[in-house]
Amino acid sequence: MKVVPFSPKHVAVLAFPFGTHAGPLLSMVQRIATEDPDVKFSFFSTKISNAKTFKLNKTGLSNIHPHNVYDGFPEGHVPSHPREAIERFMYAMPQNFRSAIDRVVAETGHKITCLITDAFYWFGAEIAKELDCKWVALWTAGPHSILVHVETDLLRERVSNEVSDDPSIDFLLGYSGLKVSDLPEGVVRDTENPMATMLHKMGVTLSQATAVAINSFVDVHPIIVNVLKSKFQKLLNVGPFTWTMPQHHIHDEERCLEWLEKREEKSVVYVTFGSVITPPPHELFALAEALEECKYSFIWSFVGNHKKQLPQGFLERIGNKGKVVAWAPQNEILQHPSIGVCVTHCGWNSILECILGGVPMICRPFFGDQKLNTRMIENEWRIGVAIDENGGFTRENTTRALVSTMSSEKGRVMRKNASELRECAAREIERNGSSIRDLNTLIHIVLS
Length: 448
Fold this sequence. Notes:
Number of strands: 13
Structural class: alpha/beta
Largest sheet: 7 strands, parallel
């Protein structure tokens, strides 16, 4: 009898190395990898992204290995702007990934049995076909944002026939009250750029994936979830990742949690715009002035030099009433009973963490899916309030929003709605909850 040599399963993971994409993908891979230590996971991203991602997410697993791909720049080149780094990387793909995969397969002698990619990577369909393997795509944002990319051709066709400059998109099921201006850039307008092209291709090809996993849970938007199920071979709601996937913990050097212990319940404003965004100077001043005027206690996780960028004398005047830090343990802060509201850019991870803390939001979106997320927060879930339509923070509109969420009946209703969504999420991660069932299905697809 001929002996067939043992060939272990080998999963290739392709990360998008910008923003908060690679971290959640690695977290999901960690969760899957714990189920079978004999399955090899090769995690492909740029050198800079891998160094940062694996430093923050210490896997402790011997079956996950990082591999660097070409970032589009000559050795030693420093990008002049983040946009340059993204665009040069996008011009280098997919060939940079294909070359890296071929190299690792040649080195290990183990062919790829499953491909996991960021959902951005439309070329996952082609690579999986070439490798004769399954393709699983991870969408790290909400169900409402992925559906507009799937329906991009329909949106462009319908909007091109509209007379209005900002027509409604309520012909899409689940988007009542939303307009074209609420959509991410590149869906209907500003379509001639690399990111818009990539997302359009993604929307067209995701139906070819064996499964599309999403960092969400069914009750976030059941109507849109059902529409997505009709579009994909298999939609897997495997979130919220904060509860379903391994999380990295960084020491609270600024003692934020200790500071919160001395505050009354629901009395503190938490301000954060993620790890990338800093509002323009006039908005920083307006927000600082509103916080000072309202006299609420606050923690501000500030990207930049707060001593130079905030109003002169602000830090001295607020004293112990406020705390401005370079980094804060966001998830733990949002779970703390002293938090009354979160001022946020409305990135999806922050929204989920607010929901899991039962915390309403004051929304100041900047780009991408953030405005669409804001509309869902305000109109669909009713768990937050948007800063005025035509832009950013002013002293007046920020003061109104703070008082509305912290000290009015409207704020109490928002808090109640957020807590109800939190309870829905909690049910989904119970033993027979839909997120756990979908997670088990995901594990089976990747490892089988």
